[in-house]
Structure prediction request, 221 residues.
Amino acid sequence: MPADKALRQEEPTGQEPTGQERTGADDPRQETAAETTRRADRDTSRIRWLRDQAARLHKRLPLRRRLSGGLAHGVMSSVAAVVAYLPTQLLGLQEGFWAAITAVAVAQTEFGATRTTARDQFTGAAIGGLIGLAAYLTLGPSVPTYALGVVLAILVCWLVNVASACRLAGITATIILLVPHVGPVERMAGSRVVEVGWGVCVAIATVWLVTRVNRWLGVKL
Prediction:
């Protein structure tokens, strides 16, 4: 009957979208992913170019400026390292030289750069300490465990967007997994983080004080 045919034509078929329809729906997503990838590649290239340009400009500074900047940086680093190292025994830190190393690594001639470096150093120590401790407790000390711990520590730094902290994260994991220690490994990991934190605090305080004094005296580095 014509009426029955009309009703059957109006009823939903329940068929899935054709391949062309699915391809058309996926095209915007693929284009968006491709554009995101291209944008990330451009940003990476720009970062590398800016880093290279900054290095070239720094090398073009006159000798007098390099002398004053290097001397100021050296004095601040030395003061921060000594101040960080001396009270470590009183603070109960057995290996205070890590606080001195951290202070040297953090201290910069600019306070803003010092804060950024300090944040990255402490983050790297915390991540490396946690990853190294977890690897030690779950898998036990071994070369494969150490290799995995370093990979995971650096990977986590990249994932939380602090790639500049990956070196210290790997170093901290190395200390926990390779360096012989006396006592529980948890204490060793905690000591590394505390020592780095103490060195970071001393470096920040030293650079802040020097910056204030230079600003009061009108000295420009």
